[in-house]
Amino acid sequence: MAKTFNSYKYLPSQTADHLRNLRLGVSKRMDSGLQGQHRSSTFGSSVEFAEYREYMQGDPIERIDWNVYARTDKYVIRRFHDEVNIRANILLDVSESMSFKDMGAMSKMDYGSHLAAALMYVMINQGDSTSLVTFDDDLRDIYEPAATLGGLRPMLEGLEEIVPKGESNIQQALAKATEFFKGRSMVVVISDLLQDPRETLKGIGSLSYAGHDVTVFHVLDPAEIRLPQEGLIEVEFLESGRKMNIDLTDFRDLYLQRIREYLDEVRIGCVNEGANYILVDTSTDLHDALLKRATS
Length: 296
Hints:
The protein has 296 residues and is of the alpha/beta class.
């Protein structure tokens, strides 16, 4: 028996309902269509009927198929091959550092998975297509693009099976993604970006220079941005396993200065590489995080 949205950990029905009217666009010209074995949605000049989708507020009323409504009591509209759609590729970091949780309500991995699920749902709900690719120092799980809620299910199930492990190499993984993604698309990178910013920005730049509309969601735990006020803490470098005891009284001011410098370097670097940069911590409301992308 197929799961309902209420059964999915990272896309419960209340989240889907909250996101139903959210729309995401792109600023660059896109190559429409689905990859792999899916039928192309490069519509061109043809006005051939393509498929139905659920009626959404703002759609022309004359596009409603009243024959379908009479049979099903549902409002749907016809999509035609002259309507260009967006192909979104969601790149999700699954390296060990994403398992970190301190001051946030959930780990960075859980937050990133919620964010990925929400982004994919929004894209499909607005009539576009999406795929999911996980990575650490290489591309790992690669899911076939989907343009229907049914096609989204394997990706939602895959998110629930993720166990973050291994070291990340963002530059290397994104360079491989650039080679893998054919044509121009929306690319969303979800990661804590725990790598030398210069290397990270090379990977982001490779995607942007290939013509993709790139957004980077930089996901951190609140403790990584602000630190607790005082006390002795044990810091574990998750990707190397090395541990260190640090007195926050002596370390806090220096850390906060360095984290500000790091965040500024990443933010400015992303902008210079032609990418949208959005910093979120794991206490940020999911809808608010997506609104930052919608208005960026």
